[in-house]
């Protein structure tokens, strides 16, 4: 695993995701309570940034058509999306968050 610094804990809002670029990938960093998640920042239905949507109940909602994705698995939990998005390992180190973009937790190759 090769973790790279993504942001600080304080930069991640409580009800939306933070879009960051790590290497060649755009990643949405989200929090649900005290847990943090890293998910591909691209809706599999309409190719828009998931970081611009709302985060609630361990999901992120695409702002354009309302598709929801589980932050743990990347699987869509609401139509119109039917394909999952990549999820990545994340580590908290002090006040910073690190993401491993070379490993996907769900086997989905990021776009």
UniProtKB/TrEMBL annotation:
Domain of life of the native organism: Bacteria
Pfam family, one: Rieske
Key words, A-Z: 2Fe-2S, Iron, Iron-sulfur, Metal-binding
PROSITE patterns per UniProt: RIESKE
Transmembrane portions of the chain: none
SUPFAM superfamilies per UniProt: ISP domain (SSF50022)
Keyword Cell cycle: no
Domain Rieske, residue spans: 4-99
Record-linked PANTHER family: 3-PHENYLPROPIONATE_CINNAMIC ACID DIOXYGENASE FERREDOXIN SUBUNIT, FERREDOXIN-RELATED
Designated name of the protein: Non-heme iron oxygenase ferredoxin subunit
